[in-house]
Amino acid sequence: MAIYEKATLGYPDNQITFNDFSLDPVYRAVSRAPQKYQLREQDIPVPFESGVADFNTLIGQTIYVIEGVMYPGSESSYDSGLAALRDVSSLDLEQTDPYSASVFSNDGYVPYIWGDASGDYTKQLFVKPLYAQTVENTRQGYVLPFKIFCKVKDPTIYGANLKNASTLAGTPNGSSGSAVYSFAYPVVFGATYYTVSATAVNSGSVPTYPQSIDIYGPVTTPVITNGLTGEFIKVDVNLNSSNDHLQIQYNKDYLNVTLNGNNVINKVSADSTYFKIQPGSSGISLSGSAISQGSYATLNYYDGYSLA
């Protein structure tokens, strides 16, 4: 009986597939358990200076253990299978990330993706494999139990498919006031503002950070607003044409705001909030002090589920 369906760890250039009985060797995953302890408490021999910056801080991290059994069909597949276990747990592993919008898979953070009973890939967790615990023993033949200890930076399970909400198909709506002031109020009095909206649907149960927010001109002083929470991100820049591209990427450890590839973090207004996409439907709107037809924003995100 298969409790766990097919799963993969890593990207195709260095990947292990679990629970695929057509392969040799077969890696049969028997448990996967998050443990919120310090790495030192797991007795994992992690070098302090490994060349990867985030190994300098080991306290307060979540460990994710993939435990299973390797079933090789021959001695040669035993050797190649054991080598694959060791390779996927290399401390210096940096795999190619096919999703350029993703900021979770750098420095060896790769997706552990698994499916449900229908065989579809539905969930993923970004992990850094640290250590493969294998004990070779001639009494068990070629069968080899293993444990892969992984570090988790963001203890959130994500949907396997990258989703997006785009305002490209929307038509900007205008609103204007009747009085003109020499300074800005948080509500419209004199200037005319335009907005264009889309809907982001997080089908999971916990909020998630966007993978990226991309804004294309023409728009002046673009504002991205989460209509569900009222939170917004305002950037004091001008996107004069459709060729101008403002990109915003962030999570709890990362922040990057660029205009045509140039850093403009200093242009983000002080009252901005780097919001999460809440479970359910969130209206995402793009507005600005001037916005023309053709300007749009795209928000890329994953559904979010609790790890514990």
Report on the structure:
- With 308 residues, the protein is mainly beta.
- It folds into two domains: 7-159, Elongation Factor Tu (Ef-tu), domain 3; 163-306, Jelly Rolls (Sandwich), CATH 2.60.120.
- Helices cover 5% and strands 42% of the residues.
- The protein has one helix and 23 strands.
- The strands form four sheets. Strands 1, 2, 3, 4, 5, 6, 7, 8 and 23 form a nine-stranded antiparallel β-sheet that branches.
- Strand 14 (223-226) and strand 15 (232-234) form a beta hairpin.
- Residues 38-60, 98-105, 176-183 and 187-193 have low confidence and may be disordered.
- Give the overall silhouette: elongated
Show unreliable segments: 38-60, 98-105, 176-183, 187-193
CATH topology of the largest domain: Elongation Factor Tu (Ef-tu), domain 3
- Helix-strand makeup class: mainly beta
- As an assembly, this protein is single chain
Mean pLDDT: 80
Helix content: under 10%
Q: Whole-number radius of gyration?
A: 24 Å
Would you state the CATH class of the largest domain? Mainly Beta
> Would you list the SSEs in sequence order as H and E?
EEEEHEEEEEEEEEEEEEEEEEEE
User: How can the largest sheet be summarized?
Assistant: 9 strands, antiparallel
Total strands: 23
CATH architecture of the largest domain: Beta Barrel
User: How far is the first residue's CA from the last residue's CA?
Assistant: 25 Å
Give the count of helical stretches.
1
Fraction of residues in β-strands:
35-45%
Q: Features of this protein?
A:
2 domains; six-stranded antiparallel sheet; Elongation Factor Tu (Ef-tu), domain 3; 42% strand; 5% helix; Jelly Rolls
